[in-house]
Amino acid sequence: MAQTDSKLTWLPQKTFELEFSLPWTEVKKTHDQVLDELVKTTDLKGFRKGKAPKDLVEKQVDKGRLYGEVINRLLPESYAAAVKKHQLKPALGPKITIIKAEENQPWQFKAKSCELPEVKLGNYEGTVRSALVKSNLEKKELTQTQKFNLIAQALIAEVKPDLPELLIESERDRLLAKLLAELQKLGLTIDQYAGSNQKTVEQIKAEYAQTAVNSLKLELILQSIAEAKKFTVTDAEIDKMIAEAGDPKLKQQLNTPSERAYIGVVLRKKKAIDFLTALG
């Protein structure tokens, strides 16, 4: 795909903006391809399905819908090319803004996303040991879950990566979407849920934003510890976890490149957790 030069602008918190454009020739080419496909499926009075003249179909089709499909086809590849050119590692899908989209002119876009923040672990092992020593003075025996919860609280308080707002908002919205889905099953609205907990909707959102911050911090900390300790996961370990799924259909679903990669991340994180809980 032809593409003009892209411009990268760094913002605070490892957030970036990419401005890039698509040549009109490329837009027009894709536009014609989409229109040809629409002709094949369009019913117009006086013509058999798929046999109406292209110019008549174009007049009938909503331009917003037509160009929306053109953008959907062109943007992913164009954005990916700009990301590769500037050697970026986006942590999120981009927020796209259309700057200019006129016929016979290059179409201009702005994409906003962020990379993961740097994590400075410091003396994290000392932090973990201190938390466990303090808890052991209060309770003689702790379960592994209790130990890890104490460790997580201590690390979240001590290690403070500069989280991009985009990352926090994305995680908060994911958690809220999950809540809304659960409420919908119960026939409740978020206003009713907030009222039953004697809170406002804004307070609920603020609480979920804080939960998002803590969750993101912990994930980044565990990832950084796994990297620092050089924990790895073998194919045999992934195979074993898939085998433990039991159900043949589930095993088949898990045994794909993307699912295996996810299982690898989970197992690597578990190694970091096991390492931390063993410090006490």
TrEMBL record:
Residues in the signal sequence: none
Catalytic activity, as annotated: [protein]-peptidylproline (omega=180) = [protein]-peptidylproline (omega=0)
Trigger factor ribosome-binding bacterial domain: residues covered: 14-128
Assigned keywords, A-Z: Chaperone, Isomerase, Rotamase
Keyword Cell division set for record: no
A biological process from GO: protein unfolding
Record-stated family: Belongs to the FKBP-type PPIase family. Tig subfamily.
Protein name as annotated: Trigger factor
